[in-house]
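seq as requested:
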Amino acid sequence: GGMSASPISQPPPDEARLSLTLLTDLTSSLPADATLDFAVEGFEVGEDAGALGVLLDNDAWLAFRTARCELRGLEPGYHLLRAFLLDGSTGLTLKSSLAYVEAEFVVEAPRPVPSRDFLFGQPSICHVSPRGVLRRAEVAAGIVCDFFIHNCEVSEDAHGYSVRIYVNGAAVATLKKWTAVELRDAEPEDGAINVRFVLVNPAGEEVLSPPFNAAEQAIMIE
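struct tokens:
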């Protein structure tokens, strides 16, 4: 005899109160690890009862013993979700359109988590000028160096900070007062003047972190 296929008899489900509904809103994109909640009526899902079957795209389906389904490591992009109910004693699907859900959703591509080098509330210095490109005549007339400081006080006091100005890697001034400076006779190196403002704490140490506090500006001279 050849191969044969025989039907398995299964009692029809009681459809009086039967329903399977997806509660989670899938209109906006989901993260790679997502939780989907369903409502199951007229049927028991549990350890010694039936199960919620979830088929994602064309992968192997997953059985859940609660109406909450945890999905992990979803690939970014489009997904098709199909869910159904499985009989507790036979493990077979309930043959009813009331016990079925299909839905589509999109998983957003993960954004790289930015490293936060900046901490609010700590002493910081912001390089205001010079920036960009200067003409030789402007350099000859004097370059205005200006900066903004925050969360510290630049002063002569013992607890005061100071600001050191570097030009092309050499310290040219240390300020004990918050004031703009005019820089004269700066010589370009390779067509640029590199300017860096650094905070110096009361102990005399340069505050080089976070990196924003030690940023160097290359001023192009044309």
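Helices lie at 136-141.
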